[in-house]
Amino acid sequence: MSIEKVHTVVVGAGQAGVAMSEHLTACGVPHVVLERHRIAERWRSERWDSLAANGPAWHDRFPGMEFPNVDPDGFPTKEQVEEYFVAYAKRIAAPIRCGVEVKSVRKLEHRLGFLVETSQGPIEADSVVAATGAFQRPLVPNLIPGDVSLLQIHSTAYRRPDQLPKGAALVIGAGSSGVQIAEELLAAGKRVYLSVGPHERPPRAYRERDYCWWLGVLGKWDAETRPAGTSHITIAVSGAGGGHTVDFRVLAAQGAILLGMAQSFNNGTLTFAADLSDNIAHGDANYLALLDEADAYVVRNGLDLPAEPEARKLKPDPACMTSPILELNLAEAGITSIIWATGFTSDYSWLKVDAFDEEGRPRHQRGVSSEPGIYFLGLPWQSRRGSAFIWGVWHDAKHLADRIATRRRYMEYHAQRTNVEITAAAEQASLRADKARG
Ligand SMILES: Cc1cc2nc3c(=O)[nH]c(=O)nc-3n(C[C@H](O)[C@H](O)[C@H](O)COP(=O)(O)OP(=O)(O)OC[C@H]3O[C@@H](n4cnc5c(N)ncnc54)[C@H](O)[C@@H]3O)c2cc1C
């Protein structure tokens, strides 16, 4: 049986796979994109109904196409994001095969390239790009046993308030997902407890410019390394309902009961660290620092943007901050559901190559892995802070396509030289045979 051969196989057709295809085509690299479900699947089936993009339409997009029918300063709905990538893939004629799952990728023995086993048969490829996303497998801390009689779901399984049983809800995690879900549940009339960890909370807009613009002009999206001492930064922002600044004191005023980090569970009672005030103070400091940097930028560059002194006025601390709850019996508090907005982990179990460190993390430089021919795309901080976001992945894909095309040229040179050498050797042998025959 002959095996299909393609120069580059891209695994996954989210934004990363689509961007990769665009740049590979531009570099003349033959490729296919294999997607186990549909283009932009995670936006379709792993996000809640009311989700809007966290960044405005002018920002959270690829350079080559605007969002059709969305105000550039508005926040596209999740359906509009999904439609955008489907339209984009069509526009660039991306060779995407949907419904094809990659089961494994292995290095070919004593030969260049990889064997890609898929649900529709094997493919041999010189290069493989893992574009399967930074947010792959829901991460739920092993805190509350599954047999405790309440509904426990991860934010990927949350859809809308009426999906939850009657009673109070506890949202654990206060990044963009946790905060947005808590706000939606409060608005639906639920009693909401929200466990808040360390976070950043930039202003939605300041002096008439969105925070995405401020992070751009202040060079923060381009920061190449995480701030010292941080392994992960949760950003609490929201594009819901036209977008607004996340303010935990406002949430508390609306009825949310804020808690520190969930710590342990025993006999129906959940305990919380005494870190709520610190976490909120850290978020405030981050918020105020951005206002300071923005003000300095305005002055230094003589920009005509209206001052906004009221943005600096913080509301008084609510009772749940001044007298924090450190223990909560879930049944007594009437909590019938827990939504874990605790993030994601990666899953590269299908990628059986030497490209991971001892802890299973991709070993790479700007997405170029330690296994020649294997590339990663869409990783957090792959080359900079913006890497896992819509606009950032496009630039990382460009870099990878350039590297893949360069490596391909080396291989082509090798193949040409090998052919020349084989032909020359054959000619020599034929001459020798002619001579021997006289
Ligand atoms: C709740 C939430 C909201 C977000 N909002 C924004 C936002 O507003 N703006 C922004 O810029 N970023 C946002 N992000 C971050 C990021 O843009 C998204 O997570 C985005 O989906 C990542 O795109 P990706 O292509 O890297 O990965 P994914 O979208 O995860 O795509 C990977 C694809 O690979 C496929 N796949 C996986 N394994 C295999 C396999 N073995 N074989 C074949 N196919 C496979 C999957 O089906 C999937 O379609 C958000 C993230 C989350 C979690």
From TrEMBL:
Gene Ontology terms for molecular function: flavin adenine dinucleotide binding; monooxygenase activity
InterPro entries assigned to the protein according to its UniProt record, in alphabetical order: Auxin_biosynth/cation_transpt (IPR050982), FAD/NAD-bd_sf (IPR036188)
Alphabetical keyword list: Oxidoreductase
Any Pfam family matching the protein: Pyr_redox_3
Superkingdom of source: Bacteria
Protein known as: Putative flavoprotein involved in K+ transport
Organism annotation: Bradyrhizobium canariense
Taxonomic lineage of the native organism: Bacteria, Pseudomonadati, Pseudomonadota, Alphaproteobacteria, Hyphomicrobiales
